[in-house]
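Checklist before submission:
- one chain only
- standard amino acids only
- sequence pasted in full

Submission:
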Amino acid sequence: MRRSAYLSCVIFLLAPAWGQTAPPRKSLPDVFLVTLDTLRPDHIACYGYKQIETPTLDALAADGIRFTQAFTHSPITNTSHTTILTGLLPSVHGVTDFGVPLSPQHTTWAELLKKQGYHTAAFIGAVILDSNTLAPGLDRGFDFYDNFPARTDTKERWGRVERRGMEVVQHAETWLDKHRTGPRFVWVHLYDPHDPYEAPPPYSQKYKEPYDGEIAYADSAVGHLIASLKKAGAYQNAIIVVVADHGEGLGEHGEETHGLFLYDSTLHVPLILKLPAEAQHGTVIEAQVRTTDILPTILSLTNTAAPAELNGESLVPLISDQVTKGQTSPSRSLFAETDYPLRWGWASLRALRAENMKLIEAPRAELYDLKSDPQELKNLYAADVTQVQGLRGELAKWKSKLPASTSGSAGGALPDPKDKVEVQNLLHRAMLASDDERASDALGFLEKALELDPASPTALRQLGELELAAGDFSKAAAHLKRAHDVRPEDSTAAFELGQTLEKSGDLPGARNALEACLKLVPSQMPARLLLGHVYLRMNDGKNAEDQFEAAQLVDSSNLEARLGLAEAQIQQSKFADALPDLEALAKEQPTNAPALHLLARAYRGAGKEQDAQSAEAKAAAAEKK
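Returned file contents:
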């Protein structure tokens, strides 16, 4: 393209950002966000990696803008994706761990574009982004959000925990084929580069490094999507963003995966932006940018009003300086954070990356000169050095933007994650082994983790869970009791301890553990029901009745609660109280043998022998079916 035509295309696209008349609504471009989980830029061909072929990403970079120094604010999937979709720092949007709901006060990318008339859809590759379970609220604004099935009988990882990239893309293509008119905003998330690295053939045979095989396969899946857009005539006028949520440790600094540290191995991400009409094709921008900058950029390009709370800045001025003026804009400082170590009982971390320097705030602080030491191997930290004082001041400015409850210093009295990295690696290996039903391997990893950290609540709880599943109740109880003692605020450990003690016959111990669990989470239905049954076995009908009534307040139609309440009333000789609901239940479910047996007991207690015999006969008939 000649430079004059090239620049006119730039001016047209960036008109909203420069105060010019916006294009009419019908010309709004489709917007596609492709997030590639756990992808390091130094494992992509167009970023200089020679051991892999990534033709799709390379072609997109040639058609658009490649940012060489893009960084995520968090090295964890849910947190980093929420940052991309809200334009907010993790401590601002609050989704700092799995299962934490996104507050309705924060507006999502989909909600903003939906107000502009966009049809919106999301297609996810992993259950950890399922809005019904581990990512509540992330589906806001999407007309369609492709969650995982509520139940699956497969023991395989595929379909239960993860979808292959090509399956995700095919789901997206099916939706696009049914929604041919725009504008459309589609988010496609591919989980493939995430561990365990298990690329399908031929990529598993072609690449010696399994991680690279996963990346090459993910590239091919993106290629299938791009081909379908071109075939439908939707590619030319589309805005396409390809970005990773975070990188991968790959053993650097001892970290096998990600989440624990704030080194560039997990913060540095690829970012490619293709604009309509292939404007600015082949542009490379070296300035440091952040994933919070992506949403403001899209809002600018689609002439959509941006919420005042956004923590990033549009990339449009930076692109304009690079293309029209030949100038390189100054880098933007990065504030990064991880609270993931807290789930293991270790200190959270905060970091500032600016002017080729990085300060990591930890129990043992770190300072790196990224120009001379890009792998962050030589810690230069000293409290009195000039760089530390300046970076601490800059870090304080960023932290002042955070909610008061989250802006305190990282660290405190908790252990430094640097001292626990091998424990975390072992815990992660145990989790994968357990998920693959390799119980003996999982036990071995957990026992090694306990040798390194005897008070690890996670290792203790996971050991207890494996022993509970194996029926070794005495060992399970010992480990779960220690886990509960170390972390009394862990309601799951308390519940599992209650389960174990109930199965081993220690009813008073089970009662105490379950009551502790319910003090932490009163709405925990399984704990409430089990506590009711424990009281029944202790012949304490009154307290059993209280528990089952409380369970019915949470779910009035719960069958186990209804049957338990009736049994508790019968145990107290309150036959008249038990009969109405049991009679109703017998009409609703005439073949429910347990309900019919209870009804017979209630009739007999109320002196209605003939009715009792009739109910027993129906129960016997139901059991024969």
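Reviewer check: The two ends are 77 Å apart (CA to CA).
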